[in-house]
Design goal:
Order of helices and strands: HEEEHEEEHHEEEEHHHHHH
Mean pLDDT: 85
Distance between the termini: 99 Å
Radius of gyration: 25 Å
Number of strands: 10
Strand content: 15-25%
Structural class: alpha+beta
Low-confidence stretches: none
Helix content: 40-55%
Length: 297
């Protein structure tokens, strides 16, 4: 009998890609997704680290290779600071397709929220996620699997939307795809997923951020989340830019379109936005009272 750890090690070695004829040398495995395995590798041509995504051994097929090729092409045409650039694409000696991309060092959004960060800082990260998704939508691409695990926060503050493996054009055929909890109702029903499906997922990510470390969510922010995650796609934000604008207004202590505030709430919001002015006025009034009582003692 061969011990289980040895069997696992032999299986791992057998499944490692054959990089003969390429300039890449594997350093370590980074992670596995639904379609491929991602390795940290070294590019000998430019002496730089890269991330190498290789079609998983057990999924090697013509259809799977075509899907990975489509993923690489999608990422290559979405040139944006929030999307990892593709460096290379090809086929290995063992027949599996691969592509090389920038190696991102950092943590997923889920892991990032485990560290001490203010809600405002996390919401500013969310604005940048919205900017990337809005760019993809403008190019006619829907991600279809937005979730905290697919958002990377780099060591120097980069915010990148990852894993475009099931991305599709806005007019693509229907098909159930996504992750439960972040997948829109229409996706779960197998209906075509347009940009409003991504809006639902962004709303779920916003809910995840808003409740990180604090379950109490302010009413305006809760209203933004509810609108983005509406079961009726027609009631959601029209696009990611519109959602971003409402969150930005919330951060700036301005009225948001998703919430009708009461008069006391409006006064409180104005006070928070103009706290410096209010403090000066209060200090001035206190000073006048002190002078008044001093002169009339």
């Amino acid at each position: 009998m061969i011990p289980d750890p040895m069997v696992a090690r032999l299986r791992q070695v057998a499944q490692q890609p054959d990089l003969a004829g390429t300039p890449y040398t594997i350093v370590r495995e980074i992670g596995r997704g639904g379609m491929g395995v991602v390795y940290e590798a070294t590019d000998a041509r430019l002496d730089r680290p890269v991330a190498l995504k290789v079609l998983a051994f057990e999924l090697s097929s013509r259809a799977a290779a075509a899907r990975m090729r489509d993923e690489a092409r999608t990422m290559a045409r979405l040139e944006h600071p929030g999307i990892v650039p593709i460096h290379d694409f090809g086929e290995l000696a063992d027949g599996r397709v691969f592509y090389a991309m920038k190696l991102v060092r950092g943590s997923t959004l889920r892991d990032h929220t485990q560290q001490p960060h203010s809600r405002a800082d996390l919401l500013r990260l969310f604005l940048r996620i919205c900017e990337t998704v809005a760019f993809a939508h403008a190019a006619g691409v829907v991600h279809r699997d937005l979730k905290p695990e697919n958002i990377m926060v780099g060591s120097f503050g980069e915010v990148l939307v990852m894993d475009w493996g099931i991305a599709a054009s806005i007019d693509s055929p229907a098909g159930v795809a996504g992750t439960h909890g972040f997948m829109s109702p229409e996706q779960m029903r197998g209906e075509p997923a347009d940009r409003r499906a991504d809006i639902f997922a962004l709303g779920a990510i916003l809910r995840f951020i808003a409740t990180a470390g604090d379950t109490r969510v302010p009413r305006p922010l809760a209203a933004i989340i509810a609108k983005a995650m509406s079961a009726d796609a027609g009631q959601r934000y029209g696009d990611a830019a519109e959602l971003r604008a409402d969150v930005a207004r919330y951060l700036d202590a301005l009225a948001v379109s998703a919430y009708r505030e009461t008069f006391p709430e409006r006064i409180g919001r104005w006070t928070r936005r103009n706290l410096a002015l209010v403090s000066i006025v209060i200090a001035y009034l206190i000073m006048r009272l002190v002078i008044f009582f001093w002169l009339h003692r």
